[in-house]
Amino acid sequence: MTTFTAWSFDTPDGAGKALSALQSASSDGFVKIVDHAVVQWPEGAAKPDVTHGHEDRWRGTGWGAFWGLLFGSLFFAPLLGAAAGGALGALSKSLEAVGITEDQLATIRDQVTPGTSLLCAVTDEGNLDRVAERFHGLHMTLVATNLTEAESSTLHEAFG
Questions:
Q1: Sorted alphabetically, which keywords does the UniProt record give (predicted)?
Q2: Among 9, 10, 91, 126, which is least packed by CB within 10 angstroms?
Q3: CB of 23 within 8 A of CB of 119?
Q4: How many CB atoms sit inside 10 A of residue 65's CB?
């Protein structure tokens, strides 16, 4: 099953370290990374820096559009004000179609502030227990996922 997860970190470099751990788990066959994005918001910066991978070269444009839609609705659309209300509603509905709710968007938006970072990953075929071993020692918060309730519970237990 393909899943979307987002982890927040208390430091601007935390998501980068977690990405290395996730890629290591992928190399060892514990999870397949479909695509990922890292948001780093250094202290004092006006806005976050967003980078995303292109694990799937054939569908890279589609993933670029997905990340643009997600991060545009998180960090840039709220600045547009009430005049953009209809467009924001359409963005939210588009993201809900892929399993990301408006409440999850709000939670992610609240977690990513100056001095923090975020790792978002679309994965498949994951062994959560083995992946959790790779994340040991990293201080993070799982802020969003479209896993089933049982899978989400397992992930929360594994990652705290």
A1: Membrane, Transmembrane, Transmembrane helix
A2: 10
A3: no
A4: 12
d(Cα 129, Cα 157) in Å, to the nearest integer?
A: 10
pTM of structure? 0.74
The residue range of the domain holding 74 is 3-159
CB 31 within 8 A of CB 127: yes
φ/ψ of residue 92, rounded to 5:
-60, -45
d(CA 106, CA 19) in angstroms, rounded, equals 23
Which residues is 144 bridged to in the sheet?
6
Q: How far is CA 82 from CA 36, 46, 67, 109, 148, in A?
A: 31, 22, 23, 18, 34
Domains of the chain: total: 1
| Cβ contact 33:23 at 8 Å | yes
The sign of the dihedral angle between the CA atoms of 114, 70, 156, 123 is negative
What tokens were used for 111? 């977690």
Q: Are the C-beta atoms of residues 69 and 52 closer than 8 Å to each other?
A: no
| 90-147 pLDDT, tens digit each | 555 555 555 667 777 778 888 889 999 999 888 887 777 788 788 877 878 877 666 6
The DSSP symbol for 75 reads: I
